[in-house]
Design goal:
With about 900 residues, the chain is of the alpha/beta class. It is built from 28 helices and 31 strands. The two termini are about 90 Å apart.
């Protein structure tokens, strides 16, 4: 197959090839320069499109699979209800102490405070009295006030000493902000690991110029504290938080990290650096990925209220069960309007600061982190170069559609790869720059190629014609190309492969009708008018949508095809669409519909037969009961005695008939046991041979596999006897009956074509004969009750109906095959049972118990069944009857 350049050179071997190569060189040179430009731009401005990366990050985080909040965290919220009930903020320290005491009394694992107390409590009794005395020059004594109640800060300090508290503080980075005095802070011990000889211990970690901390008397009562500083991105959204801040030569953790370190019982951190850049903070086996400034990306679990909130008012009122906080990590903060620190996050524009700390602690405890690898920029630069060079080569040598697909593939592949890496590993890489570079490369180079292609419009038209010919030849649909005069110009490869004809076999349209459509009018009912319309379309320049007809291939096979014509300038294309498979599927669907209809008809007949048999059986019981009672009152020699015997005999034969009806309706009482079907069949062979006579040969072919089934053995007897008797009657003189067993399995494909079957393993029982057989019409009715092909008095028509009912009652499948003059085969499949065969039937009590003074109440809605009272009375029972209204 020729390339585009080769096709151009065929038409103009000289200047066309030179022009094509020159245009390709221009595209390649421009593409390589653009790629180099974007690579240099990214090397110096890696954050140029960071805003788009932030948008992608937010989208990925909001759709992160299985991003669920931890269950071991709770937030005690100083909310609007708490302020209404206990006064406006700030609360007196004794109330805060009461709240903290109640929380610590519920035995949480650690209590993290998102509030801090940098100034003394002005509501303390001692301070109030002192200020009053100073204001009015009075000397106010504290004689009647206990010492521990004079200073609320002392009360709060005592409460902090009784619980596992972590205090908060704030660093500031401006020399104009006043710092707290006498701060008691809790630094962490730090070790460094780096792969360079030069050691710069705290390079990159932000350094605070001052701190606003808690009162010293409060900080001294706890052994852990952390800063409350946050670090929103340039667009104001909070995505990361600093883990460490340097202050006066020491490193201090943030509140969330201090909480986890207290919970883990450690105060030592290992900082790993790659060159000058920090990339990991490690504690007690947990490595936290950070950026060069020690900031951790927060994997937010959701919007506000994702974690469990408990109102501080409920804690103070004592309505919260201790179980709700026992063993939990508790955060104390506020969501009240005007008090809370709220931040815009990917999930929520106003997420409270206390819940931000909860998200960080959740990430640290579950080790569920998001990282931006230190090598990600190098990877992105490599992708920019590789994709730029690749796209340049594609645009230089391939079609516009292919290049557009490649561009979309690069963009979609980048996004999907970044998404899957983010979802599976938690690593995030900014792909906005490589996507933008690919898109810009494609737009610029495509425009350049378009300008070059316009100069070769005439050559492009010739290439288009060559492409059409290639598409025509390689199209998967059989087609032939015909001139307006009716001459066949060409046929494609698919027509040759499908129908076997070549251009030499089909020189003109008349030869096409003769070879492939001969006899269509007779074989498929296609009218001569339709063929005339198709001929008219070819010669009269009009389209024909579709004509369905059989097509005879060169090898003699026949296919059902839909033919259509399309005008193409002054020529015409005839297309052949093979619908043979669809016709076969429709025939198969019709066959399944007939099977379903037959099954439903037999089900309906079974329901009717079961109802009739039940009522008829009751009437027979009355007839036999009254006849038996009458016999007891008549002497054996009386002429009525014999009449009663005939009545009883006829009723018993009728009972046998109702049993067959109940078997067909699947309402027969059975006693199923597990037994080997092959052994049971083999035990009946002698009796079956006597039954069918010596002129018929009985052939037994047992299967080698297991044949364990669960059913009533008497039902197997009924099946064999009915099938063998029918086979005997179908054999006119001499013949044979073959009984076989085997193990078969039904898969889903088989069950789709046989509505009554269920996938599984079955024991197959097959009974075949070489008798007279049956036609299709008879075969459709053989399982219906009282249907028989035998003469009057030779059969009841219940034999096969009984077999059908027994098979269905045991969840089996029965199929019958027969052809006139060739015999019949009945195949019965019963589910294979894996239990061990026992063959034992449950014992039945044969003796009728006589009365020992009991009384029987009979309730009946049929007054004619009074003999039901007489039978128990004859056994000595006292009988009381009640006629129930229907």
């Amino acid at each position: 197959m020729k390339t585009e350049s080769e096709r151009v050179s065929d038409h103009n071997p000289g200047s066309a090839a030179v022009t094509c190569r020159s245009g390709t060189r221009r595209i390649l040179a421009c593409g390589l320069l653009l790629t180099l430009f974007f690579g240099i731009l990214f090397a110096f401005r890696p954050t140029l499109l960071q805003e788009f990366d932030f948008i992608n990050y937010n989208l990925l985080l909001r759709n992160f699979p299985n991003n669920r909040a931890g269950t071991g965290l709770a937030i005690v919220d100083i909310d609007e209800k708490s302020l209404i009930r206990h006064g406006q903020w700030p609360w007196p320290r004794y109330r805060m102490a009461e709240l903290f005491d109640r929380i610590s009394g519920m035995k949480p694992s650690v209590i993290c405070l998102d509030v801090f107390f940098p100034e003394p409590d002005n509501t303390s009794a001692g301070r109030v009295l002192k200020e009053l005395g100073d204001a009015y020059n009075l000397s106010l004594a504290f004689d009647q006030l206990p010492g521990e109640l004079r200073d609320n800060d002392l009360i709060l300090a005592a409460a902090l000493a009784r619980g596992p508290f972590v205090l908060g503080n704030k660093f500031h980075f401006s020399s104009h902000i006043k710092s707290s005095k006498d701060c008691v802070l809790h630094p962490v011990k730090v070790s460094f690991m780096q792969n360079t000889a030069k050691k710069e211990e705290n390079a990159g970690i932000p350094e605070g110029l001052g701190v606003v901390c808690n009162l010293a008397m409060l900080s001294e009562k706890v052994d852990a504290s952390g800063f409350l500083n946050f670090s929103p991105d340039q667009n104001g959204m909070l995505r990361r938080i600093p883990l460490l801040i340097e202050y006066k030569g020491n490193l201090y953790p943030n509140l969330a990290l201090a909480t986890v370190l207290k919970l883990e019982g450690t105060g030592h951190l290992l900082l790993k650096k790659n060159g000058k850049k920090l990339h990991t903070v490690t504690y007690k086996g947990t490595s936290v990925p950070v950026d060069p400034h020690g900031r951790m990306l927060i994997k937010f679990r959701g919007p506000k209220k994702t974690y469990r909130y408990i109102s501080a008012a409920d804690i103070l009122d004592g309505t919260v069960s201790p179980d709700q906080l026992q063993g939990q990590i508790v955060f104390v903060g506020t969501s009240a309007s005007g008090l809370k620190d709220s931040f815009s996050t990917p999930f929520d524009p106003t997420l409270p600061g206390v819940e931000v700390h909860a998200n960080v602690v959740d990430n640290l405890l579950t080790r569920d982190f998001i990282s931006v690898p230190y090598w990600s920029n190098a990877l992105i630069l490599l992708l920019v170069l590789i994709m730029g060079v690749s796209l340049t080569l594609f645009i230089g040598f391939r079609s516009a559609a292919f290049c557009f697909t490649v561009m979309l593939f690069f963009i979609a592949g980048l996004w999907i790869a970044a998404q899957q890496i983010f979802f599976r590993t938690g690593m995030f890489a900014g792909i906005a720059f490589p996507i933008a570079s690919v898109f810009c490369n494609y737009i610029i180079l495509t425009f350049l190629k378009y300008r070059l292609d316009r100069r070769q419009s005439e050559k492009a038209l010739k290439r288009s014609e060559a492409r059409f010919r290639t598409l025509f030849r390689k199209a998967p649909i059989p087609m032939c190309y015909i001139s307006s005069e009716g001459n066949i110009i060409d046929v494609n490869d698919s027509l040759t492969e499908t129908m076997g004809y070549t251009v030499d076999d089909l020189p003109d349209l008349e030869q096409l009708w003769k070879l492939s459509l001969s006899g269509s009018e007779v074989k498929n009912g296609i009218t001569s008018t339709s063929i005339a319309a198709l001929k008219s379309a070819v010669t009269g320049n009009s389209d024909v949508e579709s004509i369905e007809c059989p097509v005879f291939c060169r090898d003699g096979t026949r296919r059902i095809m839909v033919m259509g014509t399309r005008l193409l300038g002054d020529s015409i294309i005839i297309s052949f669409f093979d619908i043979t498979w669809r016709r076969r599927a429709e025939e198969e669907r019709e066959k399944l519909r007939e099977q379903l209809h037959q099954s439903r008809k037999l089900e309906a007949v079974g329901i009717l037969a079961g109802g009739v048999a039940h009522d008829f059986n009751n009437m027979l019981g009355v007839i036999m009961g009254y006849a038996e009672l009458a016999k007891r009152d008549i002497a054996p020699g009386d002429r009525f005695h014999k009449n009663l015997d005939r009545i009883i005999d006829a009723a018993r034969r009728s009972v046998s008939l109702t049993r067959q009806l109940l078997a067909f309706a699947r309402k027969q009482t059975i006693e199923p046991v597990v037994f080997e079907l092959s052994k049971s069949v083999e035990a009946m062979l002698k009796m079956i041979q006597r039954l069918i006579g010596e002129n018929i040969e009985l052939i037994w072919r047992p299967g080698r596999g297991p044949s364990t089934v669960r059913m009533d053995p008497s039902q197997l007897d009924q099946i064999l006897l009915n099938l063998c008797v029918n086979a005997r009657d179908a054999i006119a003189d001499v013949g044979c009956i073959v009984i076989e067993t085997d193990t078969v399995s039904f898969d889903k494909a088989y069950c789709q074509s046989h509505a009554e079957a269920v996938p599984g393993t079955y024991v197959l029982l097959s009974v075949s004969d070489n008798g007279c057989g049956m036609d299709k019409e008879t075969l459709n009715h053989i399982f219906e009750p009282f249907f028989t092909t035998k003469g009057p008095g030779r059969g009841t028509g219940m034999g096969l109906a009984t077999v059908y009912g027994i098979v269905k009652q045991n969840k089996g499948v029965i199929n019958a095959e027969s052809q006139p003059g060739k015999g019949s085969t009945f195949r019965i499949c019963i589910p294979l049972d894996g239990a061990e065969a026992s063959g034992e039937r449950p014992e039945r009590m044969e003796d009728i118990p006589r009365s020992r003074g009991e009384t029987i109440l009979i309730a009946e809605d049929d007054p004619s069944l009074e003999m039901g009272m007489m039978m128990p009375q004859n056994l000595g029972y006292s009988v009381t009857s009640s006629i129930c209204a229907k």
